Amino acid sequence: MSETATMTGLKVWKCAKCGAQFFPRRLLCLRCESPELAEDGHVHEAVVEEITVVRHVLGQEGWKPRRIANVRTPGNLMLTVGLLDESQIGQRIEIGQDGTAPVGRAKG
């Protein structure tokens, strides 16, 4: 993960029928199975709910441990993001993308 990832938020989609938000885009709503999903802007922040460290990945050479976190957005969307810093549980972070991967770091 790049320390220079852009923190411009994550584009999210919303179900027109039940209002559930999603990232990444889905073909059907996971809650009500409606195919009516539309872009719902960007989410720029979240709160860290839990953290773990991925220490080993099968088939990867030179892998370095990486911190990942489950986070909750203001719209109650749960995401898994790569942490770019030492953010802690309960901390509000800014979120963005590194390529196609969602990432987060402490605000400010």
Give me the strand/helix succession: EEEEEEEE
The name CATH uses for the topology is: OB fold (Dihydrolipoamide Acetyltransferase, E2P)
Strand count, sense and barrel status of the largest sheet are:
5 strands, mixed, barrel
Q: List segments where confidence is low: pLDDT < 50 over at least 5 consecutive residues.
A: none
User: Structural class of the secondary structure composition?
Assistant: mainly beta
Strand order of the largest sheet: 4-5-6-8-7
Separation of termini? Answer: 19 Å
Mean pLDDT: 91
CATH class bucket: Mainly Beta
Strand percentage:
over 45%
Principal-axis shape: globular
Short structural description:
It contains no helices and eight strands. The protein is mostly beta strands and 108 residues long. The relative contact order is 0.25.
Describe the structure.
This protein has one domain (about 10-105): Beta Barrel (OB fold (Dihydrolipoamide Acetyltransferase, E2P)). The strands form two sheets. The chain has a five-stranded mixed beta barrel. It has a three-stranded antiparallel β-sheet with strand order 2-1-3, with no helix packed on it. The model has no long low-confidence stretch (mean pLDDT about 90). With about 110 residues, the protein is mostly beta strands. It is globular. It has no helices and eight strands.
